[in-house]
């Protein structure tokens, strides 16, 4: 019978899944987490401060970017606990409540971050490809409503994660870990089905579906901009700059999350058909901490990709660092002004194309 002294959780003996504990993981992962924490806190805090103090919340894009920065900011706040967890050799010293809270908060901000990226992509598509027809939908009120819906939906998706996490005493390694619930003989099938549903939601709603939407939006944006470039060759360099920014956003999203999702899918397969294959579990357990580090790095990249590429943002950032008083700020060229100008140039060019084709038909 497992030992249970001074309120410790019931002991568990693991026959597989212990081989992913390596000393280099316990050293390297906390360093990477600390780097992500510092860069993420500084970068996203600057985004929030600059938008709030100088750029104001008068455009849909600024509202989404501000919420994205807040999401990434709260996402990295949990990193010190996970860094401590890894540095202590997968020993969780913070108790069951913080185990559930930290796990739920990480997943909560994972969903909000990805959903705001998707909302921003859809907004950019509407602003550039359908600037006139989408004007009545792209309002500040609708943007705030969308943000509230995203926060609530992400919260609902993260609740099962918190409920299925708890602390466990592992007798093999004599340590307490923060992990998924260990099933009893009576509820093993029900819990495994629940964990499988959570894994599927993470793969589909947390990566695949948003990624398909983002790719579709940016492909349609790129097609519209290329049509403008074909007609207005003088705007080629400016269009190329926007296309590069959009490509960087998609590339950052994919490169940061794809490795983790691949190994997460492999982990999901072990729940279904490879549960007794300890070799596969060793590969997954060893690689998973590093894929999580890469995924967390996306919260550091977002401020650079979506905000720091704008000259006006850098100018406002310098004003913030100099403690200059906030005034009536001009729109953000990298997200608002530049996109709006391209939107109307695109619509005018597309309209010109239609008129030319009509006149050719008449002739």
How is this structure best described in words?
Keywords: Cell membrane, Disulfide bond, G-protein coupled receptor, Glycoprotein, Membrane, Receptor, Transducer, Transmembrane, Transmembrane helix. It is a single chain. With 363 residues, the chain is mainly alpha-helical. The chain has a single domain (11-350), classed as Up-down Bundle (Rhopdopsin 7-helix transmembrane proteins), CATH 1.20.1070. It is built from 10 helices and 3 strands. The chain has helices spanning 23-55, 60-77, 79-87, 95-129, 140-163, 188-231, 236-272, 278-306, 311-321, 333-362, and strands at residues 11-12, 165-170, 175-180. A hairpin with a 4-residue loop joins strand 2 (165-170) and strand 3 (175-180). Helix 4 packs parallel to helix 6. Residues 1-7, 233-240 and 328-363 have low confidence and may be disordered.
Q: Secondary-structure blueprint of this entry?
A:
Blueprint: E1 11-12, H1 23-55, H2 60-77, H3 79-87, H4 95-129, H5 140-163, E2 165-170, E3 175-180, H6 188-231, H7 236-272, H8 278-306, H9 311-321, H10 333-362
Parallel strand pairs: 1-2
Antiparallel strand pairs: 2-3
Helix pairs in contact: 1-2, 1-3, 1-8, 1-9, 2-4, 2-5, 2-8, 4-5, 4-6, 4-10, 6-7, 6-10, 7-8
Organism: Poecilia reticulata (Guppy)
Transmembrane segments: 31-54, 61-82, 102-120, 141-163, 193-221, 242-260, 287-309
Family: Belongs to the G-protein coupled receptor 1 family.
């Amino acid at each position: 019978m497992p030992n249970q002294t001074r309120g410790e959780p019931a002991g568990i003996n693991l026959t597989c899944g212990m081989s992913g504990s390596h000393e280099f993981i316990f050293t390297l992962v906390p360093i990477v987490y600390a780097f992500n924490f510092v860069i993420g806190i500084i970068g996203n805090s600057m985004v929030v401060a600059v938008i709030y103090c100088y750029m104001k919340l008068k455009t849909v894009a600024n509202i989404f970017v501000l919420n994205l920065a807040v999401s990434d900011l709260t996402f990295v706040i949990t990193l010190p606990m996970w860094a401590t967890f890894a540095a202590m050799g997968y020993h969780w010293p913070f108790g069951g409540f913080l185990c559930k809270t930290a796990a739920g908060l990480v997943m909560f901000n994972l969903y909000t971050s990805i959903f705001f990226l998707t909302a921003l992509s859809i907004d950019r598509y509407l602003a550039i490809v359908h600037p006139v027809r989408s004007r009545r939908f792209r309002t500040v009120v609708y943007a705030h409503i969308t943000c509230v819906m995203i926060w609530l939906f992400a919260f609902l998706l993260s609740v099962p994660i918190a409920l299925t996490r708890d602390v466990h005493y592992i007798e093999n390694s004599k340590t307490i870990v923060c992990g998924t619930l260990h099933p009893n003989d009576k509820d093993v099938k029900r819990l495994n089905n629940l964990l499988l549903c959570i894994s599927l939601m993470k793969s589909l709603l947390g990566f695949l579906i948003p990624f398909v939407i983002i790719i579709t939006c940016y492909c349609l944006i790129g097609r519209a901009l290329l049509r403008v470039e074909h007609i207005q060759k003088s705007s080629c360099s400016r269009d190329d700059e926007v296309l590069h920014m959009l490509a960087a956003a998609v590339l950052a999203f994919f490169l940061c999350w794809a490795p983790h999702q691949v190994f997460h899918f492999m982990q999901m397969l072990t729940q279904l058909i490879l549960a007794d294959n300890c070799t596969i579990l060793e590969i997954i357990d060893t690689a998973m901490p590093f894929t999580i580090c890469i995924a967390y790095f996306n919260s550091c990249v977002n401020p650079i990709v979506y905000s720091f590429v704008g000259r006006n943002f850098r100018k406002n950032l310098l004003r913030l660092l100099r403690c200059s008083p906030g005034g009536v700020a001009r729109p953000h060229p990298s997200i608002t002004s530049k996109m709006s100008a391209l939107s109307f140039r695109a619509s005018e060019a597309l309209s010109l194309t239609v008129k030319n084709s009509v006149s050719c038909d008449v002739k």
